[in-house]
């Protein structure tokens, strides 16, 4: 039974696809500024996507526990938050973080 469990675990580990990922932190974009082509040409965001810097870092943001040091991306209209990734349009909710 132990060999079977080990074999199944190894098969699952080897069968798992390796996905490439890109992390966008939005650090370096000024407070209340459009993200736009900050990561261009690979990633270009619609005008509805803005960067917000945390208050304790000199911005206007009132948030905590963000995944990057001081800046987040937010959008003013959910249906207009689009990221253009290598000629493929995706809603911001599916964009890399």
Could you write a compact summary of the structure shown?
The chain has one helix at 2-15, and strands at 33-34, 43-45, 49-53, 71-75, 82-85, 88-91. The protein is α+β, with helices and mostly antiparallel strands and 97 residues long. The protein has one domain (24-94).
Write down the Rg: 19 Å
Distance between the termini: 42 Å
Work out the strand percent.
Answer: 15-25%
Major sheet: 3 strands, antiparallel
Q: Would you identify the regions where 5 or more consecutive residues have pLDDT less than 50?
A: 3-16
The 3D shape can be described as: globular
What would the average pLDDT be, to the nearest integer?
78
Please describe what this structure looks like.
With 97 residues, the chain is α+β, with helices and mostly antiparallel strands. It has one domain. 14% of the residues lie in helices and 24% in strands. It is built from one helix and six strands; from the N terminus they run αββββββ. The chain has one helix at 2-15; strands at 33-34, 43-45, 49-53, 71-75, 82-85, 88-91. The strands form two sheets. A three-stranded antiparallel beta sheet has the order 1-3-4, with no helix packed on it. β5 and β6 (88-91) form a beta hairpin. It is globular and about 35 Å long. It starts with a helix and ends in a 6-residue tail after the last strand.
Keywords:
single chain, 97 residues, 3-stranded antiparallel sheet
Topology:
Blueprint: H1 2-15, E1 33-34, E2 43-45, E3 49-53, E4 71-75, E5 82-85, E6 88-91
Antiparallel strand pairs: 1-3, 2-5, 3-4, 5-6
């Amino acid at each position: 039974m132990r060999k079977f469990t080990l074999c199944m675990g190894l098969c699952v580990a080897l069968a798992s696809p390796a996905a490439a990922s890109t992390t966008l932190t939005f650090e370096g974009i000024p407070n209340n500024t459009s993200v736009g082509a900050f990561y261009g040409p690979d990633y270009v965001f619609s005008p509805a996507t803005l960067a917000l810097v945390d208050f304790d870092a000199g911005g206007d943001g009132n948030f905590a526990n963000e995944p990057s040091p001081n800046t987040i991306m937010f959008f003013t209209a959910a249906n207009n938050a689009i990221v253009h990734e290598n000629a493929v349009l995706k809603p911001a909710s599916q964009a890399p973080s």
